[in-house]
Automatic annotation (TrEMBL):
It holds the Pfam family Transcrip_reg. One of its GO terms (molecular function) is DNA binding. PANTHER family: TRANSLATIONAL ACTIVATOR OF CYTOCHROME C OXIDASE 1 (PTHR12532:SF0). It comes from Litchfieldia salsa. This is Probable transcriptional regulatory protein SAMN05216565_10721. GO terms for cellular component: cytosol. The keyword Transcription applies. Keywords: Cytoplasm, DNA-binding, Transcription, Transcription regulation.
Length: 239
């Protein structure tokens, strides 16, 4: 699959020296998910997923607690969940997920980011059909065979289990996210290098050096937008 999830996470986390942008995005997402359901992660599976993701990015507990307390306090602040689809250089495909309190502003900002960096906005459905919603969970200290045995004993299905550098990465259906984590935790694993619900491209594409530089500039411009939560694409960026 070629994603090298730990490298991707580290690249995102290092874009801002103090990671304040990542923390702000998590704070917004935690608030929205907690407000939509119960503010207790044991009673709100969507919140539990976000908190597991936040843990792998070392989001401070104070930010998590503040977002949950804000949801408990009945804040009237509301956000719309939006998805944009588009194309980068040489037909590369991009999905952009956003949370916003101003739809017009976000649509304008995303369109401008595409237009100024060699991309084009597409219509809904023009790209998403080439991606699969996927749970991605990574651990260290076990081999792929050992992880497979753990999941088989727990009767948990996985799409694939791969060794990527120093980690083992489990790819599964989104509804198996908690089952995979529970099986691994029952086996004594408490730390996860990756815990993501993502959109995984069915086929990666490679770009020329010039096209890849332009593509990375486009991705950076999209990820730098305050309203954008996640950016998914089908380009193999290599190491």
């Amino acid at each position: 699959m070629g994603r090298k999830w730990n490298n991707i996470k580290e690249k995102k986390a290092s874009k801002d020296a103090n990671t304040s942008r990542i923390y702000a995005k998590f704070g917004r997402e935690i608030y929205v998910v907690a407000k939509q359901g119960e503010p207790n992660p044991e009673a709100n599976q969507a919140l539990k997923v976000v908190l597991e993701r936040a843990k792998t990015y070392n989001v401070p507990r104070a930010i998590i607690d503040r977002a949950i307390e804000k949801a408990k306090g009945g804040s009237e602040e509301t956000y719309d969940e939006l998805r944009y689809e588009g194309f980068g250089p040489n037909g590369s495909m991009i999905i952009v997920d956003a949370l916003t309190n101003n739809v017009n502003r976000t649509a304008s900002d995303v369109r401008a980011a595409f237009g100024k960096n060699g991309g084009n906005m597409g219509v809904s459905g023009s790209v998403a059909y080439m991606f699969d919603a996927t749970a991605v969970i990574g651990i260290e200290g076990k081999s792929a065979d050992e992880v497979l045995e753990i999941l088989m004993e727990a009767d948990v299905d996985a799409r694939d289990i791969l060794e990527e550098e120093d980690s083992v990465i489990v790819y599964s259906e989104p509804d198996q996210f908690h089952a995979v984590q529970a099986a691994l935790k029952d086996a004594g694993i408490t730390e996860f290098t990756v815990a993501e619900l993502t959109m995984l491209a069915q086929n990666d594409v490679e770009l020329t050096q010039d096209s890849q530089a332009q593509f990375e500039k486009l991705i950076d411009a999209l990820e730098d937008l305050d309203d954008v939560q996640q950016v998914y694409h089908n380009v193999d960026l290599g190491e």
